[in-house]
Amino acid sequence: MDSKKLEQYFHDAGWTVVHRDHRKARDGVFYPFDDLGLEAPSLAALRGFHRGIYRHQREAIERYLEGHNLAVTTPTASGKTMIFNVCALEELSVDPKARIAAVYPLKALAAEQTERWQKLVADSGINVKVGRIDGGVQSHERLSVLKESRVVVMTPDIIHAWLLSSIDMPAVREFLANLTLLIADEAHTYSGVFGSNSAFLFRRLLHATRKLGGDFNFIASSATMEDPQAHLHKLTGEHFDVIGADMDSSARSESQLLMVNPPRAKDLLSSVSDLITFAATQTSHQSITFVDSRKQTEYLASIVERRVSEEAESDEVNLGKLEELQVYPYRSGYEEDDRTRIQKKLALGSLKGVVSTSALEMGIDLPYLTLGILFGIPRSATSLFQRIGRVGRKQPGVVIIVNNGSVVSESVFRDPARLESLPLLRSALYLHNQRIQYIHAMCLAQQGGEDQAVSGNKTENDGKFTSPLPLPDDFAMLCEAERVGEVSTELQSMKAQAGDDPHHTFPLRNLDAQFKVQHQQGPNVFNLGSLSMSQLLREAYPGAVYYYQTKPYRIVRIRKQQRIVEARPEKRYFTAPLMLQPLILPNLSGDNVHQGHRYGSLLVIECALQVREAVCGFTERRGNNQLEFKYPLDPAHGLFQDAATFPNYSFTSGVIFTHPALSREGVRRSVLAEIIQEAFLMSLPFERQDISAGADKHRATRDPVTEGDKFICVYDQTYGSLRLTSHLMKKEVLRDVFTRARDIALNDANLELNEETVRVITELAECVEQEPSELGDAATSGNQAEQFVPIVSPGSIGINVHRDNEEFEVDGVFFSPQMQGLAYRGRPVSGRMKVEAANRRHSATTIQVPIDHIRPLNGESKIGYYSMETGEMFDQIPFDGEF
């Protein structure tokens, strides 16, 4: 295993081994299968299994043949794929019309698994064609694949964007009517936005299939997670039998685990890159290094065996050494060709190392890896097991966990026994998010949509919307509202954005808009991946140096309306965004308060929020020099950002904590918020990108808070909110979180907290141990006379919800006959410099927008009232008789 050579390296290079753990090899225990009554193709596929099959494999096949949906949750490399294969062969053998959908959450995984399905069919001798349909297959080829193939490998994205949007085509309808088995691999990854979208996608698929007279069973595989049965029921609406680790009798290789502290004299990324280089050049290992961000993936791979300063002034980046070492980065967002090239090298074992995000935690068979390097401890035991399970499939392996200084790593490195008590991944599906629901209501129930297509009546539908399966009540009601055209004003902007094509307007992966990064050279345009708005703020903001396949590019301009990010080649510089503190604006009026508790002097309220994140510039490292650039940028340098900030506004929900101690002098409220966020993620391991935290002050008096009161907040990062943070309203969760937060504050020396801040977290932890009392209904502004319409006052700023929540400066309010209602006159803040330059030559330029397009910033925008009778504007609603 070369572990002694690695330990010698750690000793010589100043690393410290904190903990060792040795896992012994285990022999497999086999069971017969000749009494299961399998068809000839299945027996042919199993003829190499002379000793029999594992217990969990036999149990799964037996239950599937009895008609059950299956959830297989045994560990990595335990032979889950064989279960899929045999059950699929049984369906194909019994029914000559049967179709199988093998659904994989990643294109990379789907491509690799297609070859394995083709090998299975060849080995079994059955006359069946296997096809693959994903975003890399041209549209004109997809129908041919669907017609000719009885096993079709797909991604959820292609089912949403193509299969169900093409449901009026005979080949699609025939496929769905004859679909008997859907395989959902890596089901634990169906979480957050992607999982919540997929939950409605699977229901749409079941709805269409059953209305066409067919039906199908599920087989799902999943990593070890908390309550997989409940997760899959929420994901599909169906009931599942679980085949868990308690039935696993598979063999496993010997492995060694080392927990190490890096040398203090060196920066962390350089130390880890030196370790990767040593493993690639001085050992026989083939390694995989897991990091938690796309940016770290590119940076680590790019500095292996070199100092940044040595190449910083070079116009051309020489990647020869990197290719010689055969160490490559791998992350989401790559273009198809780049991803396929790396994937093939990995599968063949021709790479010495790969640096990856969680994208390689799952599925893709990497039999040659013998060394795993974990850059910090992942938040869930599920992720830890998956990463460790990638190593040592064919021979003994070594796993090295590097302390990266994160709160979780510091906590476990203080007490390595905590590694055994990391929480399992918990399902984060929220089926009542209205924005997510409406995407699928449009696809399913709009005029000419999927429901009418499978009901055989595409032009008119006088009957009420009905489904052959039980749908969430609020989703069924929304489908009916969409059918008759009575959706709420809040959703009409989504309807306008989607037009007649919601399938392509709204992808499954993110509610954020997706931006394409492009470099244009003459007439040629080179695609450099895609990013969401939140990724844009961290990786590709105006002026940033963005890395793609280890090559640096300067972000020149962001065209938000076109979803295009323009880039040009750059020297090997490194940038980091200068972020303003998040602006958090709680809405404590009326129905915007979801629930509230009082624990002594501590107020804990879950409510709707507006959150602004904003980049105001960036720092740039050029060799040993560090520079700072503030927005706006000078267009003379070829960089275009004419506003003082690059902001992103989102509507979400969260939990705010208000306590008198937070207003004391010297309390580091933002650090307290981060600690509580970390403790929450340790208690309930949701995805980090789905949760955020910050500190702010109340900007309006609303019972029970007063303007100026300081608060800290943990909130959902997802636009529209999945209400993941609502778990903090549960007494037992809140107490666990504050116990963990107090432990972090008292023991993590990296935080450098002052005494006052530690005292406050201790006080808050003591408060939550008290019994809570319910808060009364939040105060509202009262019934306003109908003739007075609340407005954003002239001179103030709101946000335009129909233009990516961009800031809008109001000049005036007026009644517009063309718009048949009130409208604002004003201008986008982002174009202010351009407008002012034009105004020096011409008259002032403004635009007009309907009043419901502009939302106030809670507590920040100045609110006035417009009289529909007189056209006057007032700061407050006048009392009767005042005019």
Automatic annotation (TrEMBL):
Pfam families: DEAD, Helicase_C
GO biological process: interstrand cross-link repair; nucleotide-excision repair
Top EC category: hydrolase
Alphabetically ordered keywords of this record: ATP-binding, Helicase, Hydrolase, Nucleotide-binding
EC number of the protein: 3.6.4.13
Domain of life assignment: Bacteria
Record-annotated Helicase C-terminal domain positions: 271-440
GO MF terms held by the record: 3'-5' DNA helicase activity; ATP binding; hydrolase activity; nucleic acid binding; RNA helicase activity
Residue ranges of the TM segments: none
Domain Helicase ATP-binding: 61-243
InterPro entries named among the record's database cross-references: DEAD/DEAH_box_helicase_dom (IPR011545), Helicase_ATP-bd (IPR014001), Helicase_C-like (IPR001650), P-loop_NTPase (IPR027417)
Protein name: ATP-dependent RNA helicase SrmB
Organism (species): Paraburkholderia ultramafica
